[in-house]
Give the backbone structure.
Amino acid sequence: MATSFAEENYLKIIYRLSESTLEDISTNAVAELTQTKAASVTDMLRKLAEKGWVNYQKYQGVRLTEEGEKIALSIVRKHRLWEVFLVEKMGFNWDEVHEIAEQLEHIESEALINKLDEFLDFPKTDPHGDPIPNKEGILPELGYMHLSDLKENKACVLMGVAKDSAVFLQLLTRLHLSLGAKLIVKEINPFDRSISVSINESGPVFISHEVAKNILIKMA
Amino acid sequence: MATSFAEENYLKIIYRLSESTLEDISTNAVAELTQTKAASVTDMLRKLAEKGWVNYQKYQGVRLTEEGEKIALSIVRKHRLWEVFLVEKMGFNWDEVHEIAEQLEHIESEALINKLDEFLDFPKTDPHGDPIPNKEGILPELGYMHLSDLKENKACVLMGVAKDSAVFLQLLTRLHLSLGAKLIVKEINPFDRSISVSINESGPVFISHEVAKNILIKMA
DNA sequence: AATATTTTTTAGTCAAGACTAAAAATTTAT
DNA sequence: ATAAATTTTTAGTCTTGACTAAAAAATATT
Ligand SMILES: [Mn+2]
Ligand SMILES: [Mn+2]
Ligand SMILES: [Mn+2]
Ligand SMILES: [Mn+2]
């Protein structure tokens, strides 16, 4: 069955919200991310349920069906592969690609996306460290930790971010915190949990707990 | 001003129709190419005129304003650059790319399309030999002739096609008539103007006048 | 010149996807 | 257990871009 841009965006957003909770997703939560009003969301949820892509009972919240999740994953796959393309091949910075990928993710061609995947050498993660589903819709298990959970003097590598707003990414860039950087937490300030981190053996940089929480790492 | 997909498609089609005539474009002609009904076209023409992209007076036909032509050319530029990308980088055949480019042409990012242009090495023509407008909207002058106008025993090179339906392109491929092929018209049959052509010095192939008319060449 | 045919426009509908305002259900606080 | 606050749904509108059927204008034919 064909999917409109609007439907694809709703499914993708319900998917994103489902990643961080086991509970049903609320109408308001969806409205916030889709940048629409709750009333519009109610309308759309009924349509999506009608098509068998979500389970929805009024006042009970929503969750994806198996088929809905399959569609959502294919959108996520396209979004992330295009982001890789934009950074690796077009020379964009990691804070510039999200908006363009929001458009490209709706291009409908199985053949194209699989050729793109091959062209990019089957990347496992996008420029923000987010996992890319393969063509069967399976997400690679990455097992990243948050920098905020790391003990002092442990070495790790920056693998991704838990939030990809342009301002946040630009901040990281300014601090030389980019993918692949070798990090060591030098000191954790117990008062506000801000930390000082050395980056690739050079002079430590101070970052807030809020920032550290959104940096994904793996142990070196 | 923002342009919707529908508006972009109408402008592009009015542009295409304007290429082959100096007359105003009729409602019916637009309806045929947009795959809509004349009544729908009338509606849209009023809206486009309202926005200043076409000159339209009822019963008089339509033509693009300067601004409308600028928009149309930017869509054509995107369409053709994406087609080059699909063939050169993604490995599609020339008969497979049009539908996908119909989608990609609506991606809105000046930065992206200019980076793509550079990535592809500033191609002058797309996989069907059609000229690609540069970022100022200037079309390169190619001066191609139709194979049907060539005299016997003159050598030429196949530079493009005047029609890019998949069936036509597949026919050419089957006959080994691809871009860059060296052609010599061996014989013109005066009865139906069908011709026999040698391709890259090898055994001649017979093609109808209809096919020859749609093959674009330059003198060798 | 009058009539027939074709083209184009108008009038009225429809579906998708948004909105606001008001009503109903649920949750939280007293 | 009520009352208050919050969330969600319903009801009614709007815009975009399609459609059909009918009317009007333009063009072609006799
Ligand atoms: Mn993104
Ligand atoms: Mn990303
Ligand atoms: Mn094309
Ligand atoms: Mn083309």
Q: What stands out?
A: Residues 26-28, 38-39, 41-43, 58-59 of chain B lie near DNA strand C (CB under 10 Å from a C1'). The interface with chain A takes residues 86, 89-92, 96, 99-100, 103-104, 107-109, 111-112, 115-116, 119 of chain B (CB under 8 Å). Chain B has a mean pLDDT of 97.
